[in-house]
Amino acid sequence: MVKGSAAASGIAVGKAFVLPDWEWDVPENVIDVSDLAFEFEKLHEGIRLSKTEIEAIKNDIADVLGVKESNIFDAHLAILEDPVFMNEVAAIMQRQYKAAEVAVKEVVDKFVNMFDLLDDEYMKERALDIKDVGTRLMKHLLGTMEPSQPPADQPYILVAKELTPSQFAHLDPAQLLGIVTTLGGTTSHTAIMARAMGIPFVFGFDTTVQTGELLIIDGDEGDVLIQPDEPTVEHYLEKKRTWLERRQKLQQIIGLPPITQDGRAVRLGANISTFKDLELALSYGASGVGLFRTEFLYMDRSSLPKEDEQFEVYRQVTEKLGGKSLIIRTLDIGGDKLLDYLPLPEEDNPALGYRAIRILLDRRDLFKTQLKAILRAGVYGDVKILYPMISSVEELRRAGEVLEQAKRELRELGAEFREQVDVGIMIEVPAAAVIADLLAQEVQFFSIGTNDLVQYVLTVDRMNEHIAHLYNPYHPAIIRMLKHTVEAAQRHGIPVGVCGELAGDVNALPIWLGLGVHDLSMSAHSILPVKNRLLESSEAVCRDQFERVLACRTSEEIRAVLGF
Ligand code: PEP
Ligand code: MG
Questions:
Q1: Do both 228 and 274 map to the same domain?
Q2: Residue tagged active-site, from 76, 140, 499, 525
Q3: How far is CA 187 from CA 99, 287, 344, 416, in A?
Q4: Second label for 442, Cα 20 to 30 Å away, from 319, 340, 397, 562?
Q5: Which residue ranges of the chain lie beneath pLDDT 70?
Q6: Whose CA is nearest to atom 9 of ligand 1?
Q7: Which helix (H) or strand (E) holds 519?
Q8: Burial of residue 248 (number of CB atoms within 10 Å: 0-12, 13-18, 19+)
Q9: Which of 189, 475, 518, 525 is the catalytic position?
Q10: What are the φ and ψ backbone dihedral angles of 20, each rounded to 5 degrees?
Q11: Is residue 86 located within the same domain as residue 219?
């Protein structure tokens, strides 16, 4: 058994599909002149096999999706037939006496870098094509034969070095049993998406697995088992059945109002990215949507969504909510969420860099388009706007100017929109938490984003598996930061909710009740477990418990007081 870190609950048993990445470790030894003929033969055979494979995929795709979708593979074939590409490979082999795989890697790297540098979407896509073809060819040259696309018709456990949110968005959830990655973090957006979809996920796994090997992953313990024997498979299938039964049992509390034993009602809202998330959230009785992460509307496509398209999505979400409230967060890209068609500068510290509101205030066109779409959807229900990553009053005021401009333009057009829209901010940067009293005087509500707040307060990258053990929301510094923020909101009479992953952690419930936070928003799958805990809790007891938490000096003591 290999130990990783648990990122999304559940058990998966199935065959591995290893997602290849363009990182080939080929020794650069000079070959003997007498080996050149053999190397060329190897190269031509590799090209022949790659072409046969591509033709086969092309025909399969044409059968299923039509000829248009299969055309992409013509581009792949063209690369393998391109004289410029092939002449460069041949020249390196002949002049520098390098093996075929070394020459192919050099030429692919060169073209990929060249195209990547161009500020042109089309050329960037070509870089991806070249990498894809290069991967296929390299595998034949090196004698490893796994396919580079996951199977479309068989369930699999995805194994990858890293899986970005937009790569995730490409995968068919119907076949994806589970995910295992080397890099990642419990609050990485891929982990958040996996939890939202109920797909078990383990990261921090650094062992080689081959495509087709049987795997078991335990997303609660962070365990991965490779080629387990029959009794072990049976044991985990039994565990999976128990897990599903427990989940099933929780369905019985869907209809009950979310109140503590001593009568305190708590709103249990959902964090959503897609319509699917919304449907699941509503089926679990969510009180509304406390966080609509709109960045996923911008992903898995080739250009920015237009105002009307966004409006349509926001309107539909609003209507599906049938009067329940909807908090729409404006675009929060940067960090681990990137858009293929909106190149951002390479940064040494992306989490501390060009992200979220910083981009929006730079790209006012993009920001204003989104605000207009939200304002228009606001006519159809209880819609609120939430700004991500605010760190100063100035920043908030500048965002306010763009909002006013958006309203002015809608007014001039005579468009219908929500004039009196509530505006809130994420409290997820320590500076914002520290000046919460100042910010509270300028907005209608706060939403605490513990995912980023923990990363920034503890200076622990939420994406870095090497320091995942330091990512500790139960640190006294976090407790104090939360207390400071909530009290500032309460003093200034504005509502404060929590939408980070900690809101959906049953162990944290006494903290929220103790602090007087009655608005939690979480992944749909967490709603029933948190509600179950809420129904058994007493606010008065939680207040006492929280007083004791405040007196703790270490996280270990805090966990002991909270009983886990
Ligand atoms: C947060 O930071 O807690 C949050 C909810 O936002 P995201 O996870 O999308 O960064
Ligand atoms: Mg955040």
A1: no
A2: 499
A3: 43, 23, 22, 38
A4: 319
A5: 22-24, 57-58, 60-72, 116, 119-125, 128, 144-148
A6: 293
A7: strand 519-522
A8: exposed
A9: 189
A10: -75, 150
A11: no
